[in-house]
Amino acid sequence: MNRVQAETRCLRLLNALQRCGNRIEPNNLDLARLGLPPDAIIDPFNGQQLRVKKLPDGWVVYSVGRNMKDDGGTIDPFLDVGVSPLLPLLSMRDEKAN
């Protein structure tokens, strides 16, 4: 359940970031100013804010996942949980594997 909640929150946050376009400064990012409810930016695994990284190809928004460790945005079933415009949701990858 935490994984699905984390993916949902990450997707909401990614959408908010993309709506803002280039008006966001990655080095001075205040997630609370994106207009989302306060709980929408909280990582369900550790209760901290979700992690956000700006890469050349877009944003990566992620949770620390089950291992409770920040693996730098490595989206994998046993590491971080999150979304990026370049990566499918973990739940979608799980369906393809079956």
Radius of gyration from the alpha-carbon trace, in angstroms = 13 Å
SSE sequence, one letter per element: HEEEH
Task: Let me know the largest β-sheet.
Answer: 3 strands, antiparallel
Low-confidence stretches: none
Beta-strand content estimate: 5-15%
Q: How many distinct domains?
A: 1
Helical percentage: 25-40%
Tell me the strand order in the biggest sheet.
Answer: 1-2-3
Give the termini separation.
19 Å
Total helices: the number is: 2
Can you tell me the overall shape?
Answer: globular
Mean pLDDT: 85
Structure description:
With 98 residues, the chain is an alpha+beta fold. It has two helices and three strands, in the order αβββα. It has helices at residues 2-20, 90-97; strands at residues 51-55, 58-63, 81-83. A three-stranded antiparallel β-sheet has the order 1-2-3. β1 (51-55) and β2 form a beta hairpin. It starts with a helix and ends with a helix.
Task: List its traits.
98 residues, alpha+beta, three-stranded antiparallel sheet, 2 helices, 3 strands, globular
